[in-house]
Amino acid sequence: MKLDGRIVRAVGGIYYTETSEGVLACKARGIFRSKSVSPAAGDIVTVIADDNAEPVIDSVAERKNYLVRPPLANLDLIMFVVSSCEPFPNAYIIDKLIAIFESKGIGTALIFTKTDKHGCAEISDIYTNAGYKCFFSDINTDAADIRAYAAGKVTALIGNSGVGKSSLMNRIFPELDTETGEISRKLGRGRHTTREVCMHPLEGGYIADTPGFSTVDIERYGRIPKEELADCFREFAPYLGKCKFSDCAHLKEIGCAVTEAVRNGMIPKLRYESYSRLYMEAAEKEKKY
Hints:
The chain is of the alpha/beta class. The protein has 7 helices and 15 strands. The protein is globular and about 70 Å long.
């Protein structure tokens, strides 16, 4: 028989798929390999499950979005976990990933952890004012507000190694006994405590825990053409189309409405610096290809 389902975990070529008959451990048809397609957590699939035969994924529905690293499909929301300290927030990394998520049409919220150790209002206000929902979490707070916000959505928790993502998952899902890692003070980051993507059901949706990333992993999340980058910074929206030149890159051009807004304090300088750096990086990469 054929069953529709969603892959909730993928380990070593086995795809654990939630169906009306329960979670089935499936393999994928060989045709996927020939087409260079790898099923991923979040994929909507059709499973062939016959008596006395191993369940097989027969087809994968068209994805509305996809992340290569971590491999995740069909996301409604990414909750970007950022530590207020140990490691301290890196605005450029935050802005680069938010821009990538925006380019893929995925909603983004930020969760600032370890707020009992260090305040983060200076940086969190930048994102709140840009229209991003921000949450604040420490070992003394529950996660009721985060659960309520993620309810009914397909959500991924993504964050740098050592930001306390595993501890946060334990508060979102108290029944989990997730391994937590000690922070390496020498390296300024934690060791990976989540090694695979695993989606946990939550009130009509899912929250996927993902492995912590390091700086070198970020390139694998996606690339944005330089001409599309400005559309991925929400604060730029009121000024786009108002520059003197229609092909304005919003860098040093005369009559640029965006740079004028930066000078007037309408766009945070920190965010604009991230945009400028990302634009120049994208331009350099395009020269190589």
